[in-house]
Amino acid sequence: MSVAQHTAAELVHNIFDLQRALRGVTAAGMKYSELGPAHTGVLFFIGEGGPMRASALAARLGIGPSALSRQLADLEQYGFVIRTPDPLDGRACLLSLSAQGQTYLAETYERRAETLREILSDWTESEAEAASSSVQQLTAALRSAASPPNGAPSGTPRTTAHRTGNDGRHHLDPASEIPKEER
Question: How big is the chain by its Cα radius of gyration, in Å?
């Protein structure tokens, strides 16, 4: 059974509205941070993806290499990101979070979770769990459509596996059917 056009259009509107609302809440919390939202976003992606090349990170963020290099330089200066040689290609480097970057990211997650907890104070636990599940399902569908398996047409379903990012949290890994640790 497929989704009606008007429902899909309403969902697109609601997603962008949610994104704007999140930006507003996040910006209000950023006044206590030395980093802007773009820098924090880079940290989140590195934390979720584990060691990765800058080119893969830029593609995942949807930004150009020059914009990313400025942000990475700042994050390295703060001591949040480290570069290590790529064992598969000595000419390339892998980006990962330093211990200080992991701490900063964990504190940011905690601060944002507490803010959201306060905002949703009149929600029940089951309402929050249902919303989280819906967002997770939507995110997986969007990621699957954005990066189909090799040789498969766009929109081909993909099996997801759980993995632990270097931020210590468990994440869905739509890019693989096997947890990263077992590859």
Answer: 18
Residue type, 83: R
Two structure tokens written together for 161: 């596996």
Tokens of 119: 């905002």
pTM passes above 0.85: no
Rounded Cα distance, 135 and 138, in Å: 5
Report the C-alpha gap between 115 and 33 in whole angstroms: 15
What number of other Cβ atoms are within 10 A of residue 146's Cβ?
11
- Closest alpha carbon to 117 in 106, 97, 132, 100: 132
Q: Calculate the CA 174 to chain-centre distance.
A: 12
Residue matched to tokens 């399902």: 137
pLDDT digits (tens, 9 = 90+) for 50-86: 899 999 999 988 888 888 998 999 999 999 999 999 8
